[in-house]
Amino acid sequence: MAITIDGIKISSISIQRDENGLPKLTGNYELVSATGVTIAKQSFNGYNDIKLTNSSETQKVLTDFMMAVQTDLNTTLGLN
Questions:
Q1: What are phi and psi of 70, to 5 degrees?
Q2: 43 touches 13 (CB < 8 A)
Q3: How far apart are the C-alpha atoms of 56 and 31, rounded to whole Å?
Q4: Across the strands, what pairs with 43?
Q5: Is 54:25 a contact under the CB 8 Å cutoff?
Q6: Contact present, 42 and 29 (Cβ < 8 Å)
Q7: What sign for the dihedral angle of Cα 52, 53, 55, 61?
Q8: In a structure prediction context, what are the per-residue pLDDT tens digits for the chain, which is 80 residues long?
Q9: Can you give the pTM of this predicted structure?
Q10: What is the end-to-end Cα distance of the chain in Å, rounded?
């Protein structure tokens, strides 16, 4: 009986800075069968995992997101 992978489900994402100060994504995802059962759990951008290269659009969204969080924190702390 064949198992059909129907999609993936992101279970966690972490945004950190790489050695150049750019946002770096790491995370975990699950391969989900056509019946909705998790077949496997895997990681990306961590040690010994698949490597995901961000598109320029993704990199821009991450940078904008990090800047928005920084602005919100500055506002909350009264540092603007």
A1: -60, -45
A2: no
A3: 26
A4: 28
A5: yes
A6: yes
A7: positive
A8: 677 888 888 899 998 888 888 888 889 998 998 888 898 888 988 766 677 788 899 889 988 998 898 888 888 888 87
A9: 0.61
A10: 61
